[in-house]
Amino acid sequence: MNSNRTFTMIKPDAVANGHIGNIIAMITNAGFKIVSLKLTQLTVADAQTFYEVHAERPFYGELVKFMSSGPIVAAILEKDNAVLDFRTLIGATNPADAAEGTIRKKYATSMSENAVHGSDSDENAAIEGAFHFSGREQF
Fold it and tell me: Over the stretch 75-87, which tens digit does the pLDDT of each residue have?
């Protein structure tokens, strides 16, 4: 059974480029309810922990540096089939391959600065949401 929650981050590039409001509008217009939301900044240690699944990959250092380079918006979203529906809304990792009308097609500038993160499974959505929000911050 699919969970009805997923986790997202609006990444430093999209925050710096002033796209927070437009991205949140796309999310809510797609039927997602925001149950947790905050503007925050990851430390290098936070980014290393959050992305440790990629620690052996060649892009890990660059990813950690980028994700700790400026503020992000973290959010937990709710909707039936949340993980898969959100992955469809954000589009492919590479914005050149992303479908028209997706968040990454509209707001990403490159494969590494791709505007948003979206959980890839129900299990990771729960882990990632708990990383950023305490129980009392989830509604």
Answer: 999 999 999 999 9
| Burial class of residue 110 (count of CB atoms within 10 Å of its CB; 0-12, 13-18, 19+) | exposed
**Which residue do the tokens 């437009």 mark?**
22
Q: Spell out the alpha helix ranges (H) of the chain.
A: 12-16, 20-29, 44-50, 60-67, 82-90, 103-107, 122-132
Contact indicator for 27, 118 with CB cutoff of 8 Å: no
Between CA 68 and CA 65 the distance in angstroms is 5
132 classed as catalytic: no
Among candidate residues 19, 54, 117, 132, the one labeled active-site is 117
Decide: 99 and 68 in contact? Cβ < 8 Å: no
Tell me the pairing of strands 116-118 and 5-10: antiparallel
Which pLDDT score, from 0 to 100, does residue 1 have? 44
Tens digits of per-residue pLDDT, 90-108?
999 999 999 999 999 999 9
Q: Return the sign of the alpha-carbon dihedral for residues 8, 129, 25, 70.
A: negative
What is the amino acid identity at position 42? L
